[in-house]
Design a protein that fits this description.
Layout lengths: L14 H10 L1 H11 L9 E5 L6 H14 L4 E4 L2 E3 L7 H9 L10 H4 L2 E3 L5 H7 L6 H9 L5 E5 L14 H8 L2 E6 L5 H14 L6 E5 L8 H10 L6 E3 L5 H12 L5
Parallel strand pairs: 1-5, 1-6, 2-5, 3-4, 6-7, 7-8
Length: 264
């Protein structure tokens, strides 16, 4: 895979101003993106977000890392913001375990994968406040935008609207990066409303999910296919259903779906 030619829509000096403008004036955001970005969508990072916490972002991300490795393709995975480190194993541990399966790769660097780590299992703004720290939004964007070889998978934190600091959410993070978006949802009772709400939040910022993964929940009121049918009826992307304890072949299918536009 060629080195990513993507770059984020905003430079660090304009991230905050554009973030504020884009909340009330989507047309301004769209114009800035068109003027400042020449994006090759096939080489953009994939941002894995979710409808909430404990939905399966790390499970999906780690599974995709292994699928890329099985296919002989270079892959990087980041979990830049991580809370709950007092209760291992953490999401970063799961990603590092998967990354260690890369042939001839150096041992994953925790500070590179998850530079902002907090002990308390809280939203990042609260977890950081407890430690007298903060997450500099411009530094977060710069870290995610660094040139890296191969496909970059960026795992978010919690759901789309989780606060990162006093004025930014995960949605602002996604909007600043302009990545391809994979939304992970569950199949539990209530997921339809949660999923459509997350998709609406993205749409309100001029964004859309490139892929929707239904990660089967421990308990579900109806078959996952029924949930998928309802979601598509209300305009959601056709969901990819990920069974519990999915086999490698299923993640390989998801890999092919994500990398389809790489092929001529």
């Amino acid at each position: 895979m060629q080195q990513c030619r993507w770059k984020p829509a905003y430079t660090p000096t304009t991230i905050h101003a554009v973030s504020l403008l884009s909340r009330t004036r989507p047309i301004i955001r769209t114009m800035i993106i068109m003027i400042t970005t020449m994006t090759d969508r096939a080489t953009c990072p994939v941002f894995i977000t979710a409808t909430g916490t404990d939905i399966g972002k790390s499970y999906v991300t780690a599974g995709l890392v292994r699928a890329f490795i099985r296919a002989g393709q270079q892959v990087q995975a980041l979990k830049p913001v991580l809370s709950g480190t007092a209760h291992p194993p953490t999401d970063a541990d799961l990603l590092m375990e998967a990354l260690r399966e890369r042939p001839d790769a150096d041992d994953p660097d925790l500070d590179e994968i998850a530079p902002w780590r907090f002990a308390a299992p809280l939203s990042p703004d609260m977890a950081a406040e407890q430690e007298g720290r903060r997450i500099p939004f411009d530094a977060l964007i710069r870290h995610c935008a660094k040139p890296r070889t191969g496909q970059v998978l960026i795992e978010g934190v919690g759901g789309v609207m989780v606060p990162l600091d006093q004025s930014h959410t995960v949605l602002d993070w996604i909007a600043a990066l302009q990545p391809r978006i994979l939304l992970v949802a569950g199949t539990y009772l209530g997921t339809i409303s949660h999923t459509l709400t997350a998709l609406s939040a993205l749409q309100a910022r001029g964004l859309s999910a490139d892929w929707l993964v239904l990660n089967e929940s421990p308990s579900q009121p109806v078959a996952a296919q029924k949930t998928a049918s309802t979601l598509t009826r209300f305009g959601a992307p056709l969901p990819f259903i990920l069974p519990r304890q999915a086999e490698e072949a299923t993640f390989d299918q998801l890999f092919r779906l994500i990398t389809a536009e790489h092929r001529p």
